[in-house]
Specification:
Length: 995
């Protein structure tokens, strides 16, 4: 082989070196197109990056610096390489065809990651026309040789045998003209180690697009789109027994022919126990078909087939993850399954994170098939079907095969797990999961090693003879924590769902059809619903919790021949809006075979336990009203059965009622005195639900004056503190104060508080006694005194605490505040700042006097009081003002003299007043005119002067009146008593009347 030039050598030099010393005819004009290059590992340049190397995001290509040979296709012809093995891709015409590049790669047989076949950066690409002429094929012998049973591939257009990365960059395709039914050869035959095929779009023949041969290992097919126009292309991919570590990823596939043994999207062929496929992965592939349309010579719109059929094959490890299958078996039935494992032997099978949208179940055609007869059952040692979505599944006919059919009469050696899937059937006259296992009708809880858990089912078992999960002869199968939507088939009489006759085909969520499945385990049940399916009282919810009494199986409908759960037993608790089991709540363990009560917390809107429900679904607690509805039911798990926990059918449903809105009460706190002399008044608030909080603004406080109120305008009722008494914020103490005697009433209005659940209270707080009467503990004694102006002795009073009032914890300091009248008449206290000392009960006598004045009798002067103290029981209280009544003379005796003329009847004082005319002060009368006088004597003594007057003598200075001026002598005059006396005489020149 001639020496290779440096990568940046002039093209003409490379052309000359490629041809050797004797240049071939016609090469001069074509030399510039020869873009096969040898690349030094450490000197790759940015020019190579510009060559358009692409890869799916999940499957990056090796860094360009690792290529030692890069062969760049610039022709759509199928001509051969002129000199395979010289490291340069060139036909005799100087072009680099895909065939020439592969021939060169095969001849080089370099190490993994050293050879890359790409597309020349200046080449636009296009379609390589595939034809039946075998001279255009790299291999012309049948690919099925050596153990294959699918015989259609008579050869291969491109035969890849050595380590290489082929990246067609989604630019070059390979297909027959006019979508013809030709050639009868695979497009790519991959039959060597370390082969990556990337960016191959719209490439197909009349047979297989990608045929992975028995000598293939570490194969990766990724990053393309193929949609055939008709059903002439028969297979997207075929993997032969002997192949190792095969991966198909990031493709979009539609079309291809379809049947259950040779045509379809994916097949394993010729894989035996001695020559298995070791490691097969399908990841991130989208398989699509139309919901309607034909699958024939003119259209592939309705074609769908198995993404990977392992029927009759042996595979050590098969993984199908992150794929999407749309409208499988919907338009046309071709007897295919999404996963066909009939008669297969698989050490480990993983079906995870796939989305299966709107498939149709056909009679006897489950989506995932482990074999429906003894002759076709699969041997699977370990399988996982987890985290998938099966959406909008419909059933063309009623059938028992199910969406997943586990191996008929077979067992799972190590482990089987069906978990965290969403199974939604739009119409479901069939099972979601069906297994007729290896046992018999004899009671059995033999371990099956199969667990079905944490799945969400809806819409299955809608036919009267179908269930969502049905087991027969399966031994112990763990079925736990699954949910069943409202479309799931179940018994209207939920008591009937607990057991059912042995081998009866009935409509249930879970059906242990006979004693050979989970020993037809009897279940615990909620006692609120009786065996005759009646319920006397709804189970009430308080604080969004339910106290649910449950009991172990005893009597009908429990079967005497079935297994009763031993203890300890786990009970899975479910909520349902009707007769299903839409929400899994929790699991509890019982350790005694006796009725017992559990507190069940209901999930609220936003709870993770409700996340799987469809939009608008009924949930346990109405998010608008807080009303509780639906019911609770159980499923029993018996771990004592063996290494596989046995599971029962579902129990009867106990119906619920109640509310989750906070219900409040407010009442006097326990121990609160009423009436109270202590300033702090206590109420207790309770809530049926934990609150986000309660503060003073949430509590309404009213104050009403009482007979002992001093000043209703100065009551000043207020909340001084609100304190939570528990960690859950359900019990609070409210403390209020007022400044004077009053009746206080506390309340909480509707909508004032919010529970942690988000609901407000929709009704005011209820109460039995929310009123407390407060009595001001300070009193004046007396409240009124009478003062004689100028009397230096004065009068006294005291400020005291009531009997039973709290003992002052500190001095009570009073400030006296005389009003304007008191100031005008010099009313003053000997001690203007009296105190009640700490521990005391009175200020002692306080002397009040008034200065000398000619004050109008009975004038009221007020002396107010203000109190301050560090003792909150007294600080700022309203204190009674002292009412001081002022007089300039003693108010004990009052004498009034009135004059009358023209008196018609002088016999009594009363007749004189009645028949005479009163002479007012300042009137003029004639000399000698007859005048009668009336004297009124009254005892007006009161207050400190109140007393009976004795020996009262009334005289007049006019000795002509009475007896020489003596008008009357009164031995006794009671308090408030008055008497009248009269005397008449002619007027003399001196006015003797005093007005």
């Amino acid at each position: 082989m001639p020496a290779r030039p440096a990568p940046d050598a002039p093209r003409r030099d490379r052309a000359a070196l490629r041809a050797g010393t004797a240049r071939r005819p016609g090469l001069r004009a074509l030399a510039a197109r020869r873009w096969s290059r040898t690349v030094a590992a450490l000197t790759a340049t940015s020019a190579l990056m510009a060559g358009g190397v692409t890869a799916a995001a999940a499957d990056p290509a090796p860094a360009e610096s690792t290529w030692t040979h890069e062969l760049l296709v610039d022709s759509l012809a199928t001509t051969v390489d002129a000199d395979p093995g010289d490291g340069v891709c060139a036909t005799a015409a100087g072009e680099c065809t895909l065939r020439a590049a592969i021939m060169e790669s095969n001849a080089l047989n370099a190490g993994p990651g050293e050879v890359r076949i790409g597309v020349h950066p200046d080449f636009a690409g296009g379609r390589i026309a595939l034809v039946a002429t075998q001279s255009t094929w790299m291999r012309t012998t049948a690919l099925s040789a050596g153990g294959g049973t699918i015989t259609g591939d008579g050869g291969a257009v491109f035969d890849v045998l050595a380590p290489v990365t082929i990246d067609l960059e989604n630019k070059i395709t390979a297909a027959p003209n006019n979508n013809a039914d030709t050639p009868a050869a695979a497009v790519f035959h991959l039959n060597g180690p370390d082969i990556t095929l990337r960016g191959v779009d719209q490439s197909f023949s009349a047979e297989t697009t990608f045929y992975v041969g028995p000598n293939a290992s570490n194969i990766h097919i990724t990053g393309g789109t193929i949609a055939t126009a008709n059903y002439y292309p028969e297979r997207f991919v075929l993997v032969r027994g002997g192949a190792t570590d095969v991966r198909i990823s990031n493709y979009t596939v539609s079309g291809y022919a379809s049947n259950d043994d040779a045509w379809g999207w994916g097949y394993v062929d010729g894989a035996t126990a001695t020559n298995p496929v070791r490691g097969l992965v399908v990841d991130g592939v989208t398989y699509t078909a139309n919901a309607t349309g034909a699958c024939g010579a003119s259209s592939a719109a309705g074609c769908s087939s198995s993404p990977m059929s392992l029927r009759g094959q042996t595979v050590t490890d098969f993984t199908f993850t992150n794929n999407t299958v749309v409208n499988f078996n919907r338009a046309v039935s071709a007897s295919t399954r999404i996963m066909d494992l009939r008669s297969a032997t698989v050490d480990r099978f993983v079906f995870a994170n796939n989305t299966i949208t709107t498939p149709q179940l056909r009679a006897g055609l489950p989506l995932i098939e482990f074999g429906g007869t003894a002759a076709t059952r699969a041997t699977v040692h370990d399988f996982e079907i987890v985290d998938n979505v099966f959406a909008g599944v419909t059933a063309a006919t009623e059938a028992e095969s199910g969406a997943i059919r586990l191996p008929f009469g077979g067992s799972v050696r190590d482990r089987g797990l069906i978990a965290r899937n969403s199974f939604h059937a739009a119409t479901g006259p069939t099972q979601a999961i069906y297994w007729q296992g290896p046992g018999s009708n004899a009671l059995s809880v033999a371990p099956s090693n199969v667990v079905i858990e944490d799945n969400a089912f809806d819409g299955w078992g809608s036919a009267a003879s179908r269930s969502t999960i049905r087991l027969r002869y399966a031994g112990a199968v763990t079925i736990q924590r699954n949910t069943f939507g409202t479309g799931s088939g179940s018994q209207v009489n939920t008591v009937a769902e607990e057991a059912g006759a042995v081998d009866a085909i009935v409509q249930t969520l879970v059906n242990n059809r006979n004693l050979g499945s989970n020993g037809k385990l009897n279940t615990w049940y909620p006692t609120a619903r009786a065996a005759d399916n009646t319920q006397a009282t709804l189970v009430g919810a308080e604080r969004c919790t339910i106290d649910l009494e449950v009991a172990p199986p005893s009597g009908a409908p429990a079967l005497a021949t079935a297994r009763n759960p031993e203890t300890p037993t786990t009970l899975d608790l479910y909520w349902t809006s009707g007769t299903a089991a839409e929400v899994y709540l929790e699991s509890v363990t019982v350790t005694e075979q006796a009725p017992q009560t559990f507190t069940v917390t209901l999930p609220l809107e936003g709870d993770d336990r409700l996340a799987h429900l469809p939009a608008g679904a009924t949930i346990p607690v109405n998010p608008t009203t807080g009303e509780v509805a639906g019911g609770l039911r159980l499923q029993t798990q018996d771990p004592n059965a063996g290494s596989t926990t046995a599971s029962s059918q579902f129990s009867r449903v106990a119906l619920l009622s109640g509310t989750c809105r906070p219900e409040l009460t407010i009442d006097q706190a326990e121990g609160q005195a009423d009436p109270a002399l202590t300033r702090d008044l206590h109420w207790t608030v309770t809530s049926s639900l934990p609150l986000t909080g309660l503060d003073a603004a949430d509590v309404d406080l009213e104050a009403e004056a009482t007979d002992q109120t001093i000043d209703a305008e100065r009551l000043n009722p207020r909340i001084v503190s609100v304190t939570a008494l528990d960690e859950e914020n359900t019990v609070f103490t409210v403390v209020a104060r007022v400044d004077d005697s009053a009746l206080l009433r506390a309340g909480i209005a509707a909508g004032a508080v919010t529970a942690e659940s988000g609901w407000e209270n929709d009704a005011p707080a209820a109460s039995t006694d929310a009123e407390i009467t407060y009595v001001n503990p300070l009193v004046l004694d007396p409240e009124q005194v009478t003062l004689l102006a100028g009397d230096e002795v004065g009068e006294s009073y005291a400020v005291s605490t009531r009997v039973g009032a709290p003992v002052p914890a500190d001095d009570l300091a009073f400030r006296t505040v005389p009003d304007a009248v008191a100031t005008e008449y010099d009313v003053r206290l000997a001690n203007a700042a009296p105190t009640i000392p700490m521990g005391g009960s009175s200020t002692g006598a306080l002397t009040v006097t008034a200065g000398e004045s000619d004050v109008e009798a009975g004038t009221s002067a007020m002396v107010g009081h203000e109190v301050t103290s560090t003792d909150v029981n007294y600080d700022g209280l309203v204190v009674q003002s002292l009412d001081v009544r002022l007089y300039s003379t003693s108010p004990a005796l009052q004498l009034t003299k009135q004059a009358y003329v023209h008196v018609g009847d002088t016999s009594t004082p009363e007749s004189i007043q009645a028949t005479g005319t009163e002479v007012l002060a300042g009137s003029r009368l004639g000399d000698g005119q007859a005048v009668c006088f009336v004297w009124t004597v009254a005892n007006n003594s009161r207050d400190t002067w109140a007393t009976e007057l004795t020996d009262v003598v009334v005289r007049d200075s006019d000795t002509r009146l009475g007896d020489d001026g003596l008008i009357a002598e009164i031995p006794a005059l009671a308090v408030g008593e008055s008497r009248q006396y009269a005397s008449c005489a002619p007027l003399v020149p001196v006015d003797s009347r005093r007005g």
